[in-house]
Amino acid sequence: MQEDRFVDPRLQAREAMFQQLHLSTFETMGYARAIQQLVEESGCDIEADNTDLLQLLRDYEVTKNLSQISESHLEALCEQTDQLVKSKSIANANLAQLCAAASSALNHWRILSEIPVDLREKEQVTKALKEKFQHHMNTWEYILKDLL
Questions:
Q1: Could you tell me the pTM of the whole model?
Q2: What is the mean pLDDT of residues 20-38?
Q3: Under a CB-based contact definition with an 8 Å cutoff, are residues 11 and 119 in contact?
Q4: For residue 116, what are the CA distances in angstroms to 7, 84, 113, 126, 140?
Q5: Rounded to an integer, what distance in angstroms lies between the CA atom of residue 52 and that of residue 95?
Q6: Can you point out the beta strands (E) in 12-144?
Q7: What is the DSSP letter of 127?
Q8: Which of 114, 100, 107 shows the shortest CA–CA distance to 132?
Q9: So what's the pLDDT on residue 1?
Q10: What pLDDT digit, counting tens, does each position of 7-17 carry?
Q11: CB-based contacts of 96: which residues, under 8 Å, 6+ apart?
């Protein structure tokens, strides 16, 4: 027998956006994996014009600009990330990792922000999403600490 579950219509209305943000995170991880594989195979850093790196930089900028991070702990992380992107003082492969972690965390933040507040507090609705967000944010913070 199939279990019928009630899904809040407010979540259903946002489902297409949620799917797009999850797909974006999946694509981001694909670009990062391609760069990691290239570095492992060549034993060298990637070039600044690497298409996967350029895409990760674009993804980060777009995702950051679409995320409502004002007065959140993510604002400082974005400021630190922006400084490293502008400085061009780190290896391109490290920059790719940083942008991938930041974009993934920001995408999860955007999803969480779109969930109505009364549902956001319900563990059965957001537990896995909050865990993924925390994982990506921890990765982002770890990379920043390592690079600063």
A1: 0.87
A2: 91
A3: yes
A4: 13, 34, 8, 11, 26
A5: 11
A6: none
A7: H
A8: 107
A9: 42
A10: 777 777 778 77
A11: 31, 32, 35, 46, 50, 52, 53, 56
